[in-house]
Amino acid sequence: AELDRSKSELSDRVTRLLAEADTITQQLEEAELKASTAAKAQATMESQLLEAQAHSEEETRQKLSLSSKLRQLESEKDALQEQLEEEEEAKKNLEKQIAALNQQVTDAKKKADEEVEKVNELEELRKKMQKDIETLQRQVEELQAANDKLDK
Q1: How far apart are CA 60 and CA 49, in angstroms?
Q2: Is 1 helix (H, G, I), strand (E, B) or coil?
Q3: Is the pLDDT of residue 94 over 90?
Q4: Over the range 70-101, which residues count as b (16 or more CB within 10 Å of their CB) and which as e?
Q5: DSSP 8-class letter at 79
Q6: Cα separations (Å) of 60 from 45, 55, 57, 105?
Q7: What is the C-alpha separation between 79 and 44, in angstroms, rounded?
Q8: Radius of gyration of the chain (CA)
Q9: Residue 88 is inside which H or E element, if any?
Q10: CA 3 to CA 9: how far, in whole Å?
Q11: Alpha-carbon distance 95 to 19, whole Å?
Q12: CB burial class (10 A; 0-12, 13-18, 19+) of residue 36?
């Protein structure tokens, strides 16, 4: 009886230990599965992190490139603005010169018109004097002819 009871206790104990072993084995498998899943998730996250870092570096390179281009374009804009201001100043100077030359042309035309008027007046005076001279010459000739007649 004692032997049967010891045998029965041992049998129960073996059954319990086997059940515990099954539970531990099952827990181990679950833990290994979780560890495997966690390792895959970690690998995925590391890959995503590397991708994000590469993307961030590319964005930084593009920002630097755009910033450089922006500075270059601003410099070109400033140079063009300065050139435009210089050309506008040169245009103003040319417009002043044109206005002065136009005034000189106007003055020269006015003076030329006055000179033409004087020439016309002098020409009229010359013609009148020529007529007067001719008239006087005729009178002289007539007087000489009359004088010659009187002398005879």
Answers
A1: 16
A2: coil
A3: yes
A4: eeeeeeeeeeeeeeeeeeeeeeeeeeeeeeee
A5: H
A6: 22, 9, 5, 66
A7: 52
A8: 64
A9: helix 2-151
A10: 10
A11: 110
A12: exposed
Hunting for tokens 């010659």 — which residue is that?
148
Rounded CA-CA distance 122/113 in Å is 14
Q: What do you get for the CA distance between the two ends of the chain, in Å?
A: 218
Find the length of the chain.
152
pTM of the model: 0.46
For the record, the structure tokens of 65 come out as: 């490139």
Task: Collect all residues with Cβ–Cβ distance below 8 Å to 21 and sequence separation of at least 6.
Answer: none
Amino acid residing at 53: Q
Residue 138's identity, in one-letter code, is R
Token pair in block for residue 48: 């995503």
Give residue-wise pLDDT tens across range 30-85.
Answer: 999 999 999 999 999 999 999 999 999 999 999 999 999 999 999 999 999 999 99
**Distance between CA atoms of 8 and 64, rounded to whole angstroms?**
82
- CA-to-CA dists, residue 71 to 58, 64, 65, 76, 94, angstroms: 20, 10, 10, 9, 34
